[in-house]
Design brief:
With 197 residues, the chain is mainly α. It contains 6 helices and 4 strands; from the N terminus they run H-H-E-E-H-E-H-H-E-H. Helix 4 runs antiparallel to helix 5 and helix 5 packs antiparallel against helix 6.
Length: 197
């Protein structure tokens, strides 16, 4: 009787492992690859047969000639394998120091603006630490710098931001946003066009 119960339990464990641990995951993965191939492969952005990033993961654009995303809370910066927030509370001196450092950088990179013009997104890291998007306001604030350093028309950059802003979901959930990698790819494209003309 004991061996029969043990054998039934073992069969159930093996069957559960096969169905829930393997078959289910393979079916879901297959459906994902079939219906959402881009997302299932990491939403990779490919240019000239080379992966240059992902539309889902923020990147570290070190040159001031590009749009800058949200600060990263990961170490090293924008490390997708270490995605996490800083977990600093609002009164933590380390958070206040981080925000002040980021604010000083934004003000230095974008002369002519005041601290009150800077949206929180440009000085505070996101919950994931690798957010790939910024608000349209954060993008518009950077247009004069990007335009000046790349010799690209401000109107062309503003138009691109408007055309590529994703609205709130169902017009009530979340906030409007624009992808930073997409913006910077357009900067490279417009810069190339300007140099050819």
């Amino acid at each position: 009787m004991y061996l029969k119960t043990l054998w039934s339990s073992l069969k159930f464990i093996v069957l559960s492992f096969l169905v829930l641990g393997l078959v289910y995951n393979l079916v879901i993965f297959g459906i994902g690859k079939l219906i959402f191939p881009g997302q299932a492969n990491g939403s990779l952005v490919v240019q000239n047969h080379r992966v240059i990033g992902s539309s889902l993961i923020g990147q570290n654009f070190t040159s001031e000639k590009y749009f800058q995303g949200r600060p990263s809370a990961t170490t090293p910066a924008y490390n997708a394998a270490a995605s996490s927030p800083s977990n600093y509370g609002p009164t933590n001196p380390l958070l206040i120091k981080e925000i002040k450092t980021n604010l000083d950088r934004v003000l230095k990179e974008n002369p002519g603006i005041s601290a009150s013009d800077v949206p929180p997104q440009l000085v505070e890291s996101s919950a994931s630490g690798i957010d790939p998007d910024i608000s349209p306001q954060a993008a518009y604030l950077q247009v004069p710098r990007v335009s000046r350093l790349n010799h690209i028309s401000k109107l062309a950059l503003i138009s691109y931001i408007k055309d590529n802003t994703v609205s709130r979901f169902l017009w009530i959930f979340g906030d409007s946003y624009v992808n930073v990698l997409s913006l910077n790819l357009e900067v490279v494209k417009l810069d190339h066009i300007e140099k050819q003309s």
